[in-house]
Amino acid sequence: MDAEPRVLIQRLPEDLVNKIAAGEVVERPASAVKELVENSLDAGATSVLVEIEGGGRSLIRVRDDGCGMGREDAQLALERHATSKLRTWPDLQAIATHGFRGEALPSIASVSELSLWTRDEAGPAGTEVQVRHGRLVHVRDAGHPRGTTVEVRDLFGAVPARRKFLRSDSTEVGHVAEAVALLALARPQTGFVLSSGSREVLQTPPVDGLAARLYQIYGGAFLEELLPVEDGHEWAQVRGFVSRPDRPTASRAALRLFVNGRAVRDRALAKAVLEGYRGAGVSEPRPEAFLFLEVPLAMVDVNVHPAKTEVRFADSRTVWQAVQGSVRRALGSGARRQAPRADTSRIQEAAEGYLALGAEAPSRSLGDPGLERARAEGGLALPVAEGPALEADRWPADVPTVLGQHRNTYIVASDGEDLILIDQHTAHERVRFEGLLERLERRAVESQILLAPLVVTLPPELRPVFESHGGGLTAMGFEAEGFGGGSVRVRAVPALLGARDPGRALQALLLDLLERESSDWIVSSSRDRLAATLACHSSVRAGQSLAVQEMAAIVRDLAQTAHPTLCPHGRPTIVRVPKEDVTRWFGRTGWRRQ
Ligand code: ADP
Ligand code: MG
Question: Cys-Cys crosslink for 240: which of 63, 291, 430, 472, Cβ 3.0 to 4.6 Å?
């Protein structure tokens, strides 16, 4: 008997297809905001207003004064693969708009309650469309000025797995702020406002260029640390700004890269930027960059991923050369302009700072209960930023004697037997870290009141973090308050920082808070992480020339720490060259009598 033919494959209903697409297009509130604002920009808006509540979970509202839509278009806009930006296959190879896939609106609508109000030039009345979790509720007339407002409520309300993956409100607001900032950087002539609840996170009225926009978003002090790039190679143009090579290195590279006005994540481009720094003589670059690459539309494929943040170039070599060469040349000419500003003042400052603190340098004993507890809780096993923890060398029984400094980076010492190399930065970091933990334990972190309060402009993504994590910063010795427009007024700083730029340390701490934040975040490790960051920012750096007594002080203090052989991030502080090796190198192996 013949079996019934079985058909197992089915076409999925459109709503389910949209939900699947949403998985890729809408990762978190910030991605929904990005898609909605991109639509506003594609519609030619001169002003975009973004409001969010609950980190974007409870509400996202994007209002623009763009071209708007007629009634039929408004309905079609919410259908899958419905777009006004693309008609034919050749169009796809010359995409000049942000959108082209026609899937953002239906995807967002499939995982939220979405309402849209819109009116175009021709329409006598506006249109309202409402969709609830992918199902059309109604389409009707509604008053609206020319332009479009899209409101998204209860994002991921019916997708518990995705909702659970979201972080705290302040972190989500931070991501939204970064997304809006990227779009604002690409469109200086458009005005943007982002508010979260009753707070304004970002406000950038239209300006005439990138420099003015950078000023609006990041403040004037930051702009002074940047060098302009205006260059290119063959058909690839590169313009924007890169951080000066002599700028103290940030805790990590922050590269904002755009291809034809679209913010992209591209490893090869990022590498090209770093290569440009290396070419200009910066050995371990951690730059900040805002670079806009303009290439002919046909030379770049933007249709790589639904989120549209990846691209493929037809000829990546030309792009590489354009970016790498432009950055290198910009740094070269910038360095010449800056030549008189040699590093000596910073070195002096660091050395003086260290010596000034020498008097109260922490003396730590082994087996400190606070430290032991932190270690037991895994607090000291901090994540390593740039690789796995290395095997630490043994710490010598006696405090090593300092012989000198190698390449302004390593302390050369001897314990009478072996030759010992000490990384001056990681060693000092360890000293500072344990001292700071101990003072935190005693609630005795010292603040230094500034003679004149300092106003620091925070990058948008860090503003909400600042607002919600004041306590951690106070414990570290900062006294700072919001000052409007993304500025923070700093009245007191950790004494540990000495004469160092407190703005930078503050930003590094906030960045830690932003990056570390997750549902399984434990308080003890966050405190240690903050302490490690502050320790890093208050330590002598690689490349600073140190006097022998300064090096001796670091080594002496390091010997007093509980974990002298590793820095708080897990990198080694010392490397030993055993006497046997030295003996062998000089062919003295046979000479038993020395
Ligand atoms: P895409 O942007 O890829 O075309 P979307 O799903 O984001 O796809 O949007 C679908 C269509 O809806 C767009 O092509 C556009 O015609 C229309 N649309 C969406 N948002 C707006 C807006 N803010 N103003 C005018 N038209 C819009
Ligand atoms: Mg779109």
Answer: 291
Burial class, 203, CB count within 10 angstroms (exposed 0-12 / middle 13-18 / buried 19+): middle
Cα-to-centroid distance, 109 and ligand 2 (Å) = 13
Nearest-angstrom CA–CA distance, 558 and 550: 12
The residue whose C-alpha atom lies closest to atom 20 belonging to ligand 1 is 39
45 lines ligand 1 (CB under 6 A): no
CB of 374 closer than 6 A to ligand 1? no
The strand ranges marked E within 56-188 are: 59-64, 113-119, 127-132, 135-141, 147-153
- Give strand pairing partners of 457: 487
Instruction: Provide the token pair at 269.
Output: 């481009």
Q: Report the range out of 40-44, 221-225, 358-362 with the highest average pLDDT.
A: 40-44
What is the 8-class DSSP label of residue 249? P
Q: How confident is the model at residue 163 (pLDDT cuts 50, 70, 90)?
A: confident
- Is the pLDDT higher at 270 or at 570? 270
Global confidence as pTM: 0.71
Instruction: Please name the helix (run of DSSP H) or strand (run of DSSP E) that holds residue 23, with its range, or none.
Output: helix 14-25
All structural domains of the chain, each given as residue ranges with its CATH number in brackets, are 14-205 (3.30.565.10), 212-333 (3.30.230.10), 346-577 (3.30.1370.100)
Pairing of strands 191-196, 47-53: parallel
Nearest ligand to the C-alpha atom of residue 302:
1
Is the shortest distance between the CB of 65 and ligand 1 below 6 Å? no
Distance CA 506, CA 529 (A): 13
Contact 382, 525 (CB under 8 A): yes
**Cβ-contact 389, 566 below 8 angstroms:** yes
| Any atom of ligand 1 within 6 Å of the Cβ of 148 | yes
